Amino acid sequence: MSNLQHRLQWLEPAWPAPPQVHALSLLRSGGMSQGLFASLNPALHVGDEEADVRDNRRRIRDFFSLPDEPLWLNQVHGIKVSDCSDTTPGPQADGSYARGFDRVCAVLTADCLPILLCDRGGQEVAALHAGWRGLAAGVIESALTLFHSPPEQLMACLGPAIGAGAFEVGEEVRELFCQQHEDQDLITESHREGHWFADLQGLARRRLERLGVSALFSMGGCTFTEKEDYFSFRRDQQCGRMATLIWLSDHPRVEASRIRVDDSGGGFYRCQAK
Questions:
Q1: Among residues 219, 252, 231, which one has the least CA distance to residue 13?
Q2: What angle do CA 57, 63, 66 make, to 5 degrees?
Q3: Dihedral through CA 89, CA 112, CA 206, CA 118, nearest 10?
Q4: Is 143's pLDDT higher than 80?
Q5: Among 265, 261, 151, which residue's Cα sits nearest to residue 202?
Q6: Greater model confidence, 263 or 126
Q7: What's the CATH number for 3-162+215-273?
Q8: Containing H/E element for 142?
């Protein structure tokens, strides 16, 4: 394994969150997993060697000096969001919420959209796993009910997900979103009859805006097309997952090489361990 594979790489949002808000989305490099799961796979449910997965989780925890083990979820494409303060490890949920310091929210994705939320005062945070099912069913709405702050006092960052030019869906998905909110402009016709391309990030962004969250940011590219950086279930079927984390802490951010990447979502930082 090369030195580059051993180095952790991740993305950080370029958002105006208070300094105690720590948020990042890990890329696939820097771990111990092999083959289809190379290399930083923190998911136990995908067929990877358990010892490698636990070592990857330990690497993440130790490198970022996490104040606690992340609340790793049993994700089911639903809408439940667990409160980190009163739940047992491994809850069946598609998001986690924390108010106060030293609780680490985490979601695992490989095409679905990770969404990070925090309030402008830096008192509460959440991480959501939003595939098309959870997004349509209301996972964002579930998370907002846990926040003490109103939506207009929140900011959101959309992480890496499958891009609009790669996320082909069937007629039932198009009808679902168009019936709910007339979002047909975000679902365009495919060259295959009865199939459509859906803009998952665009659908999430619009839903957040409708709910009153107007401070929106994004980071990362297309998980399907950028194989060097991301796992993709749709591309590879069997693969690892990327972890996206958010937590509150007084500790400074880790030392790293940070490069600013400007995009339409406000920009983000691409980071690598020194």
A1: 219
A2: 75
A3: 30
A4: yes
A5: 265
A6: 126
A7: 3.60.140.10
A8: helix 139-144
If you average pLDDT over residues 9-23, what whole number do you get? 97
**Residues in a beta bridge with 97:** 83, 126
Mention every residue, 6+ apart, whose C-beta is less than 8 A from residue 151. 144, 211, 212, 213
pLDDT at 7: 87
102's CB contacts (< 8 A; 6+ apart) are 67, 68, 247, 248, 249
User: How do beta strands 154-158 and 215-218 pair?
Assistant: parallel
- pLDDT, residue 87, reads 73
Q: Residue 121: phi, psi to the nearest 5?
A: -85, -10
Strands 242-248 and 215-218: what pairing? Answer: unpaired
Question: For the segment 29-57, what is each residue's pLDDT rounded down to a tens digit?
Answer: 999 999 999 999 999 999 999 999 999 99
How many beta carbons lie within 10 A of that of residue 81, not counting itself? Answer: 25
Q: Residue 239: name the closest of 42, 71, 54, 74 by CA.
A: 42
Task: Identify the three-state secondary structure at position 84.
Answer: helix
| Token pair in block for residue 51 | 């010892």
In the 8-state DSSP scheme, what is residue 252?
P
Tokens standing for residue 186: 């975000």
| Residue of 148, 75, 153, 84 lying closest to 111 (CA atoms) | 75
Kindly report the average pLDDT of the chain as a whole number.
95
Domain ranges of the chain: 3-162+215-273
Q: What is the mean pLDDT of residues 112-136?
A: 98
Give helix 200-210 / helix 171-181 axis angle, nearest 10°: 20
If you average pLDDT over residues 124-133, what whole number do you get?
A: 98
**DSSP label of 264:** T
- The three-state secondary structure class of 247 is strand
